Amino acid sequence: MSDKTETNSFAIAIDGPAASGKSTVARRLAERLGLIMINTGAMYRAIAWATLKKKVDVSDPEAVVAMLAEIAVTCGVKDGESSILIDGVDPGDALREDQVNARVSQVAALPEIRELLVAKQREYLKLGSLVMEGRDIGSVVFPDTPYKLYIDASEEVRLARRSAEGLTDVVSKRDEEDSKRKNSPLMVAEGATVIDSSEMDIGEVVEAALVELQAQGLAV
Ligand code: DC
Q1: Is-contact 75 120, C-beta < 8 A?
Q2: Which residue(s) pair with 130 in the sheet?
Q3: What's the CA-to-centroid distance between 45 and ligand 1, angstroms?
Q4: Phi and psi dihedrals of 28, rounded to 5?
Q5: What is the pTM of this model?
Q6: CATH number of 11-214: 3.40.50.300, 3.40.50.920, 2.40.110.10, 3.90.1150.10?
Q7: Which of 49, 141, 201, 206 has the lowest tally of Cβ within 10 angstroms?
């Protein structure tokens, strides 16, 4: 699929490991550039949350895939950002709970789940230009976009950022599972510029991102 529509909408792809700061950077960039911000991790989290609600065993791929036929997954935009409803319900803060953290990588490794969500992610381009963050945006969702960043940070810094948010997260375990999986693993996409944010504050990361996007040809 092309990364541009007849309306010339484009996508900025931002990938990186858990808690690298990519959501905050994506949100700030979207505000600065007047684009829609799409958080694809929330989409995988919503499916993981649905398996909890429906008491589906995530170690049974067939059961997880069968669940897809029984739930309505509705993606939209609210206040300039992506939103997701499962059977009309917004899971809200429950998406970041430990139980969801613990099973989301397993859910995200299933090709049927990825196929469904990648199609929904590409649909967003019809609504306008996007900043989309995740793990496979530059490699799989919009491989032809010229605008690609990979936001990294040391594991120590990423753990500290999560705990500053009052959250516990198994970031290294999730990263290992997300990097090792067969389908669309976490990787630096071809053509992506890596920004190591370990020693930067969020404002510095946003400025560095704007410089790199300009070098990739974006009019900022
Ligand atoms: O960005 P996040 O930590 O909220 O993402 C949650 C999980 O979803 C992550 O562990 C891997 C998966 N994910 C994915 O496989 N592909 C994406 N594009 C986004 C997230």
Answers
A1: yes
A2: 11, 36
A3: 7
A4: -65, -40
A5: 0.94
A6: 3.40.50.300
A7: 201
Ligand 1 within 6 A of CB of 169 = no
Residue 119 CA from chain centroid, whole number = 14
pLDDT, tens only, 107-152: 999 999 999 999 999 999 999 999 999 999 999 999 999 999 999 9
Q: How would you class 85 by CB atoms within 10 Å of its CB: exposed for 0-12, middle for 13-18, buried for 19 or more?
A: middle
DSSP letter, residue 89: B
Q: Are strands 73-78 and 81-86 parallel, antiparallel or unpaired?
A: antiparallel
Nearest CA to ligand 1 atom 1: 41
Atom of ligand 1 nearest to the CA of 175: 10
Please give the distance, rounded to the nearest whole angstrom, from the Cα atom of residue 136 to the centre of ligand 1: 9
The whole-angstrom separation of Cα 104 and Cα 109 is 9
pLDDT category of residue 174 using cuts at 50, 70 and 90? confident
